[in-house]
Amino acid sequence: MYLITIFGNLLIILAVSSDPHLHTPMYFFLSNLSFVDICFTSTTIPKMLKNIWAQSKVITYEGCIIQMQFFALFIGLDVFLLTVMAYDRFVAICHPLHYTVIMSPQICGLMVLVSWIIIVSIFYCTGLGVYLSLAGTRSSHSSATASVMYTVVTPMLNPFIYSLRNKDLKKGLQKLFGKVILKGPIVIDLKKYL
User: Fold this and answer.
1) Closest by alpha carbon to 158, among 34, 25, 26, 29?
2) Spatial separation of the C-alpha atoms in residues 70 and 90, rounded to whole Å
3) Cα(first)–Cα(last) distance of the chain, in Å?
4) Is the pTM of this model over 0.85?
5) In a designed cystine with 138, which of 13, 32, 71, 133 is the match (CB 3.0 to 4.6 A)?
6) Does pLDDT of 96 surpass 60?
């Protein structure tokens, strides 16, 4: 799931940055959300995978503090980006004639951050379930399941949610995969392999 999260979010970033038609506020926020999701999952998942592989749950105090600081930073960025994305869609739908004035590049630069309702509710409900449940009443299995939902599944779903029903992003991905890639002296046409 971690690799799907990284790969899916990287595809969105590459598609948005390579296609000039996707250089709009909505896609600017989406590519920033993808970057934050990569960072968010990368603060905990590699350590978790190492712990599973080594069958050890040890972390130093300093490592724990650093991990928690970055975790909190990226959660905050995720929430703010989803909020800004919701505002962007609100302006586009409710004030279409004023959209370019309200969502100018300067405003978008100031608003790089988070909030799509379903993802936010999954994000918060599972997070609250993990951290607010009483230690004596929860099993380690249900806690682990909620933690995985909170830290892995939600960021993994974002690329699918934001790209599957989006024609412009699909076209950007097709253009990205349709380009010829140069690798040293060898030229690879991706269309042959897709």
Assistant:
1) 34
2) 30
3) 22
4) no
5) 133
6) yes
